[in-house]
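Input structure tokens:
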């Protein structure tokens, strides 16, 4: 225990020294009495130092900024951008603090040669550092396209600090090299709350799929003739995990799916490649309760994507577009009810009273990741559910998609990937001869593959299986489907203003009304029901619009006044990238904006 505390203190001194640097953030030694010559002596030092990297990789439990979201009460870079408000003058990123993580990683790699110890163990920690450097630059490429590549800590006077961006092709290959090294040298054993060989292979597969499909669909980067080798890496990395990793799809039915996201203990879960450990005894909690009824809701578009239990598209159903909230969940993929709040939902602190949805958020609120036990949900940053970071389902989907994009997928491939996920929730198997869904075809008009219908169904499967896990925005970007981000997403269908039953018990629970001055739509509702209604108004008492409206005036889909009054627009290819802040281009004139920024 004492040695553990010692190393934590040493790490703290080093980190403090880094923060306290008076020169540029890429300079050599931290200004502290704990110098590199003293600290980097053993593999235990490498372990302690590399523990500081883990804050760069955290679980995600939302799909904010994507078409999976109908309404988001806050704002962010993507929202600002599609409403025309983002420019190099107000953009964030690229500052000293943004590059600080890279400096810490390269600092360790610069000093690892002085460490004494087992060579394989040293390579293991070098692999972890290169894993995080690969992750850092993966995110930078996604944001800025061309970025300067640094693989060492530089002096503040070094001319390389003021160099222009390196080409995407060069940086992308460097990331590939880092992640390939990590996957080859990080040891396979140990706890899955730390980076293992399998986590490194998962990030390698995710990155290779992203870069391969991005190159395939984004002709503006001039790399469409060099995408297949990345897809091949995605296939081989995912196949290695499938063959040798010992992971499996666990659980049965909707409850088995739910347990992946609302469990107090994931330590024995064979689907978890990397997970975050939260617990009251650790003093570490999360805020997953905010997914429900707080600042965002899920979209009708996402809800419509879930298949019926017979395996056919919901959008093929006559009248699907005017089904009531209490009707749309019947006979659907069980994952839908485990992702979107539904009439059957009961919260952990009130298991008898039905949950009433709020039309101000659209009606389709998120419940995936919501704690289902009162003892796991105790307050702000006091939820104690363990959360997945990498899970085996994504690996299977990467394998299937990369093979479909390559044009060499077989029924056996489907049975070993997608159909394992469908089997968990008792959904019909996907077949190689699946019919083309016209809705999916219109959603992704530029998708190309030998079997296009199958590729689109794999995209559907990825969307519903991985919903709210933070991947949807990147998927739309790499598929060059950014135009979907300008669509004003909607909520549930409302047949008429007045009282509505949203809990399925035949008794009205909420009412959507014109204003507090006009409640005529519920004039004939019995008093005993009327007094218990939760009322929501399209206008306030002064006639001002509220945050939502009905697309047909007195009926239709719930839509949002902000989208109506500040329409979204997605400019291609410009908005697939972010501007470098103007202040940074002044400090380094060699930096150049890309694609219209």
């Amino acid at each position: 225990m004492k040695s553990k505390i010692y190393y934590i203190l040493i790490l703290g001194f080093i980190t403090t020294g880094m923060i306290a640097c008076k020169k540029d953030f890429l300079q050599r030694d931290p200004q502290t009495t704990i110098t590199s010559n003293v600290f980097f002596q053993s593999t235990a030092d490498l372990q302690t130092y590399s523990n500081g990297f883990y804050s760069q990789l955290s679980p995600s439990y939302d799909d904010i900024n994507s078409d999976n979201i109908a309404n988001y009460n806050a704002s962010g870079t993507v929202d600002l951008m599609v409403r025309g408000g983002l420019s190099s003058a107000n953009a964030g990123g690229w500052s000293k603090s943004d590059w600080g993580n890279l400096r810490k990683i390269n600092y360790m790699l610069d000093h690892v040669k002085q460490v004494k110890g087992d060579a394989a163990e040293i390579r293991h920690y070098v692999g972890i550092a290169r894993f995080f450097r690969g992750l850092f630059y993966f995110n930078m490429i996604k944001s800025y396209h061309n970025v300067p590549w640094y693989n060492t800590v530089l002096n503040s006077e070094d001319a390389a600090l003021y160099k222009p961006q390196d080409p995407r092709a060069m940086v992308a290959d460097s990331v590939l090299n880092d992640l390939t090294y990590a996957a080859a040298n990080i040891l396979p054993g140990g706890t899955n709350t730390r980076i293992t060989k399998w986590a490194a292979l998962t990030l390698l597969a995710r990155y290779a799929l992203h870069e391969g499909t991005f190159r395939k669909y984004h002709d503006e980067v001039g790399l469409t003739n060099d995408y297949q080798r990345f897809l091949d890496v995605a296939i081989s990395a995912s196949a290695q995990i499938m063959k040798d990793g010992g992971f499996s799809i666990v659980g049965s039915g909707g409850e088995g799916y739910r347990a992946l996201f609302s469990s107090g203990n994931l330590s024995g879960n064979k689907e978890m490649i990397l997970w975050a450990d939260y617990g009251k005894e650790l003093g570490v909690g999360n805020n997953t309760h905010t997914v429900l009824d707080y600042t965002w809701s899920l979209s009708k578009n996402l809800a419509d994507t879930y298949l019926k239990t017979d395996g056919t598209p919901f959008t093929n159903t006559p009248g699907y577009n005017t089904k009531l909230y209490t009707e749309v969940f019947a006979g659907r993929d069980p994952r839908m009810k485990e992702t979107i709040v539904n009439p059957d939902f009961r919260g952990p602190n009130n298991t008898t009273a039905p949950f009433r949805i709020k039309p101000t958020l659209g009606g389709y609120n998120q419940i995936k990741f919501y704690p289902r036990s009162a003892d796991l949900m105790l307050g702000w940053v006091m939820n104690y559910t363990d959360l997945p970071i990498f899970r085996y389902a994504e690996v299977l989907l990467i394998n299937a998609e990369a093979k479909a994009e390559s044009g060499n997928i077989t029924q056996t491939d489907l049975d070993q990937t997608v159909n394992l996920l469908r089997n968990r929730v008792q959904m019909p198997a996907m077949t190689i001869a699946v019919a083309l869904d016209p809705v999916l075809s219109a959603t992704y008009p530029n998708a190309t593959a030998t079997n296009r219908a199958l590729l689109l169904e794999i995209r559907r499967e990825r969307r519903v299986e991985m919903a709210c896990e933070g991947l949807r925005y990147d998927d739309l970007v790499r598929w060059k489907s950014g135009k979907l981000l300008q669509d004003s997403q909607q909520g549930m269908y409302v047949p008429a203003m007045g009282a509505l039953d949203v809990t399925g018990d035949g008794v009205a629970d909420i009412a959507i009304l014109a204003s507090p001055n006009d409640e005529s739509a519920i004039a004939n509702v019995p008093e005993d029901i009327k007094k218990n209604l939760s009322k929501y108004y399209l206008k306030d008492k002064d006639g001002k619009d509220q945050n939502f409206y009905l697309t047909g005036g007195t009926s239709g889909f719930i839509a949002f006044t902000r989208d109506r009054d500040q329409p979204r627009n997605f400019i291609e290819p410009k908005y697939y990238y972010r501007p470098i802040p103007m202040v940074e281009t002044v400090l380094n004139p060699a930096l150049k904006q890309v694609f219209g920024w």
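The chain is about 35% helix and 5% strand. The longest strand covers residues 272-276.
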